[in-house]
Amino acid sequence: MMVQLHLPPYIALPIVVIFALCLGWTIERFALRPLIAQPILSLIAVTLGIGYFIEGIITFIWPWSVDALPSLFPEEVVHIGPAVISQEYLWVIGICLLVFILLTLFFRFHKMGVAMRATADDQMAVQACGIPVTRVFSTSWMLACVVAAIGGVLISSIGGISHGLVDTGLKAFSVVILGGLDSFAGALVAGPIIGLLESVGGGYLQSYTWGGVRDVIPFIVIIIVMVIKPFGLFGEKRIERI
């Protein structure tokens, strides 16, 4: 929108959000709704297939691998003691915290947010209460695509646009596993932990192992957490008795 159509950010970003809403609704309506009440493995397989399909379409339309996004934030650096930090990093952190707070308030106080939490906890009980599960699923995917679009714009503003942005979702999955699947606060704490492990571990281990070891560290964390603490650092422990 900004590079090829030369639109200003205040017009391009709302268009991206609208497109993300339409994409989320389309994925849920035509690919995932027929799988309601099916095993979770089926949903995972279908979503992975959709991801690779979309990535293939993107590669076909935009064959080049990396492109630069026009600057969205001030480029002056900020001095915090001896540290020198680019303003774009501070803006990205601030926007992420704002989105985090808004999502927290939405899931805690909004009727649809509470319905989403209830549906995630017990789908059959929600249906018995008359809550339209299909509408909840559709809204969830639309919201998820919007959050993903915002995250993609923020990441692209720092490192550029590339097909490798897809891998960021897999790293985010390790953050969710470490923090706990049902804990917002856990994700907020686990994010910096994974980032530090990538940077520190990659810096110390790279000379002893291989060049891309830092990209493997999040997945090693997933394995360790699933073995030692399956519910994550702050996840709710559930024990089912039969």
Describe this structure in words.
The protein is mainly alpha-helical. It has a domain at 163-242. The chain contains 9 helices and 4 strands; from the N terminus they run ααβββααααβααα. The chain has helices at residues 9-32, 40-61, 87-109, 111-121, 123-128, 133-159, 166-179, 184-205, 213-228, and strands at residues 66-67, 77-80, 83-86, 161-162. Strands 1-4 form a two-stranded antiparallel ribbon. α4 packs across α6 (133-159). The longest helix has 27 residues, at 133-159. The chain is globular. 10% of the residues are buried.
* Amino-to-carboxy terminus distance: 55 Å
Structural class: mainly alpha
Helix-strand topology string: HHEEEHHHHEHHH
Overall average pLDDT: 85
- Helix amount, in percent? 55-70%
Main beta sheet: strand number and arrangement?
A: 2 strands, antiparallel
Radius of gyration: 20 Å
Low-confidence stretches: none
Q: What is the element layout, followed by pairings?
A:
Blueprint: H1 9-32, H2 40-61, E1 66-67, E2 77-80, E3 83-86, H3 87-109, H4 111-121, H5 123-128, H6 133-159, E4 161-162, H7 166-179, H8 184-205, H9 213-228
Antiparallel strand pairs: 1-4, 2-3
Helix pairs in contact: 1-6, 3-4, 3-6, 4-6, 7-8, 7-9, 8-9
Task: Provide tags for this entry.
242 residues; mainly alpha; two-stranded antiparallel sheet; 9 helices
Describe this structure in a few short sentences.
This protein has nine helices and four strands, in the order H-H-E-E-E-H-H-H-H-E-H-H-H. It has 242 residues and is mostly helical.
